[in-house]
Write a structure and sequence with these properties.
By secondary structure, the chain is α/β, with parallel strands linked by helices. The protein folds into two domains: 7-133, Arc Repressor Mutant, subunit A; 146-268, Trna Endonuclease, Chain: A, domain 1. Helix content is 46%, strand content 16%. The chain contains twelve helices and ten strands. The chain has a five-stranded mixed β-sheet with strand order 4-5-6-8-10, sandwiched between helices. A three-stranded antiparallel β-sheet has the order 1-3-2. β2 and β3 form a beta hairpin. It starts with 12 loop residues before the first helix and ends with a helix. 31% of the residues are buried.
């Protein structure tokens, strides 16, 4: 009888640090969150049932959540960097870092963080993650998604998606929302230089993961009616849904999950205010050399 996998079977973030390095090397030194996620699954040969185990908030898989913390730690030691477009890359340090060095990263980061705190307090280690470090990276996204899921009506979410598409360069964006239309919620035109594309989109406002069946049904509804398809959700997509979206021989469907949706809102400054804090340092040696 096959053992049913549980949360305890998902590797902790510290064990995923070197997995992230290996995954990025397979990807040629750079990759998006989704590409890294898929590459880690491949290089570590994780079974599908482990990949689908949910984090407690049910929006991300536990593996995705812990991989996000692994990237955070790698960035703090300068092993990886990321661009404004959400692409992670190996630095020179990351290209040569060993598995043994990766295992030492959490303790090094904690010591450095504790030393910088006002009263030099000791940080309590938790098995899954350390909430104190870079906590706001998750908090602001969680606040957006919980607000949308719990307070926004389906119509309001459709209007938000319409606004996002318009702000992103789409024209003639209409929300149709016709019942029995295969889940198609709207249509828009995206012009790329001299060429334009008709895009049908679907809006899914819930915490659960979008399945491969939902992607296939949407593709069936859009056949012969557009050039591209787009699904926007406040939740996530199962690994099978991601594969279905880019399946060979079928029309590609672009997927925007909750995390990508938050990044879009931040980039477009829609409901998200970003404040830059000025940090001033004094070069005492410069003054002493006068």
């Amino acid at each position: 009888m096959t053992k049913q996998l549980s949360r305890s079977d998902v590797p902790t973030y510290d064990r995923l640090i070197y997995s992230t390095i290996k995954a990025l090397k397979v990807l040629g030194g750079s990759g998006t969150n989704d590409e890294i996620f898929d590459s880690v699954i491949s290089v570590e040969n994780f079974p599908a049932e482990l990949v689908e185990i949910k984090h407690k908030d049910e929006r991300l898989s536990l593996l995705e959540y812990r991989l996000a913390w692994a990237r955070t730690y790698l960035k703090k030691v300068g092993a990886i960097g990321n661009s404004e477009r959400g692409v992670w890359n190996l630095t020179d340090h990351g290209k040569t870092i060993s598995e043994a060095e990766c295992l030492e990263i959490p303790s090094k980061v904690r010591k450095n963080y504790a030393g910088n705190r006002k009263h030099n307090k000791i940080i309590r280690e938790e098995p899954d993650l350390i909430e104190q470090i870079n906590e706001q990276d998750f908090d602001w996204k969680e606040k957006i998604l919980s607000t949308l899921v719990e307070r926004a009506s389906p119509d309001a979410f459709e209007r938000l998606c319409q606004r996002i598409l318009r702000e992103s360069g789409f024209t003639k964006v209409e929300v149709t929302g016709k019942s029995g239309d295969g889940g198609i919620d709207g249509i828009g035109i995206l012009r790329m230089n001299l060429v334009s594309f008709t895009v049908l989109f679907q809006c899914k406002k819930y915490k659960d993961s979008v399945s491969s069946v939902a992607v296939r049904n949407f593709r069936g509804a859009m056949q012969g009616r557009c050039d591209k398809g787009l699904i926007i959700t406040t939740g996530t997509f199962t690994s099978e849904a991601k594969k279905e979206a880019v399946r060979d021989g079928a029309d590609t469907i672009d997927l925007i999950d909750g995390e990508a949706l938050c990044e879009l809102l931040k980039h477009l400054r829609l409901g998200v205010d970003v404040k830059l804090v000025e940090e001033i340092s004094v070069d005492t040696e410069w003054f002493e050399s006068l």
